[in-house]
Amino acid sequence: MRKQRVVIGMSGGVDSSVAALLLKQQGYDVVGLFMKNWKDDDTDEYCSSRQDFIDAASVTDIIGIHLEAVNFSAEYKDRVFDRFLAEYQTGQTPNPDVLCNAEIKFGAFLDHAIELGADHIATGHYAQIRELNGMFQLLKGEDGTKDQSYFLYRLNQKQLASTLFPIGHLYKREVRKIAQDYKLPNFSKKDSTGICFIGERPFRNFLSRYLPHKPGEIQTPEGTIVGEHIGLMYYTIGQRQGLRIGGTKEGFGKPWFVLKKNMADNILIVVQGHDHPKLFQPMLAASDLTWISGKAPHCRWVYAAKTRYRQPDAPCSIAKISEVKCEIEFAQPQWAVTPGQSVVVYESKVCLGGGVITE
């Protein structure tokens, strides 16, 4: 009887390595796939792709599986990076990791895996999948500090039906322990952070290569000029660092935070104090909606939502909903809700989907 083939995305990190190991132990025919998604300015100074491939190859040698490298740079530029730049130009702060998962890791990667004869694809994400009455649900990872369902909310039924998350039921410490026990060379490798095409390079310098920047005034909501910004695209709602303005007597020396961007007049609006009332919103609007079940949730039911990855679940209800837009009302006002970021809705551990915040 033919073994089921699983093609697993391998990044060179410990999570995907242990995921591949577990699949091999479970009796699957496992093939590793290393994805290269960026080619511009791809040097050792900022991008670790060369070392990551070496790490992935070292692991597959130990596990005893084949590793293939594939270049999705063109797909990444067309489906993710160009949209990333377009949203920055409109003053939004996009989340390319969400798009990368939907378009590359579970899009182009899935298509390529099928060409390789895959029955399933797999990744090292901290998330889980459950089949219930013929429908597939996306669940939070068991390790709440590492749960990555927020970045996966755009997956659909077809993608979930084809996907395995081998480490979703494990805690990070358990994953590292498994890697160490099996003498995987990357068992203590630091988790990657940020976006591959940016890496550790200075973000402002990187963005300025692709988008023109236009300096302008920094003002309070009342219109008082307190400084000058270097270009609205470099700032995000709730940002504190890099504003280069001091305190005022009226603000009792409290630090400044970005409140919003006036794109029409090229003005950055700021307030003083982390807990300034204007930084809190009782509700938000979102568009570009994706619901994992294919159906929108009920209005006025009690749900929870995140407006950013590291945020605790915030109790909420959906006040209005249509095919293209929804409004979410929170039990407690939320801090620094940011247009361009994703709002992701949960019912207990089940990720229902979400959309892109517009206001």
What labels would you give this structure?
Elongation Factor Tu (Ef-tu), domain 3; 17 strands; six-stranded antiparallel barrel; Rossmann fold; five-stranded parallel sheet; single chain; 3 domains; 359 residues; SH3 type barrels; 7 helices; alpha/beta
Could you report the average pLDDT, rounded to the nearest whole number? 90
Strand content: 25-35%
Outline, from the CA principal axes?
globular
Low-confidence runs? none
Strand order of the largest sheet: 12-15-14-13-16-17
CATH-defined fold name of the largest domain: Rossmann fold
**CATH homology superfamily name of the largest domain:** HUPs
The number of helical segments is 7
State the domain count. 3
The helicity comes to 10-25%
- The number of E-state strands comes to 17
Terminal residue distance: 55 Å
Q: Determine the structural class based on helices, strands and strand pairing.
A: alpha/beta
Overview of this structure, please?
The structure is a single chain. By secondary structure, the chain is α/β, with parallel strands linked by helices. The protein has three domains: 5-181, Rossmann fold (3-Layer(aba) Sandwich), CATH 3.40.50; 212-274, SH3 type barrels; 279-357, Beta Barrel (Elongation Factor Tu (Ef-tu), domain 3), CATH 2.40.30.10. The chain has helices at residues 14-25, 49-63, 73-89, 96-115, 157-161, 172-181, 203-208; strands at residues 5-9, 29-36, 66-71, 120-122, 127-132, 135-140, 163-164, 216-219, 225-229, 256-262, 267-272, 280-291, 303-306, 314-321, 325-335, 342-347, 350-357. Strands 12-15-14-13-16-17 form a six-stranded antiparallel beta barrel. Strands 3-2-1-4-7 form a five-stranded parallel β-sheet, sandwiched between helices. A four-stranded mixed β-sheet has the order 9-8-11-10, with no helix packed on it. Strand 1 (5-9), helix 1 (14-25) and strand 2 form a beta-alpha-beta unit. Helix 1 (14-25) crosses helix 6. The longest helix has 20 residues, at 96-115. The model has no long low-confidence stretch (mean pLDDT 90).
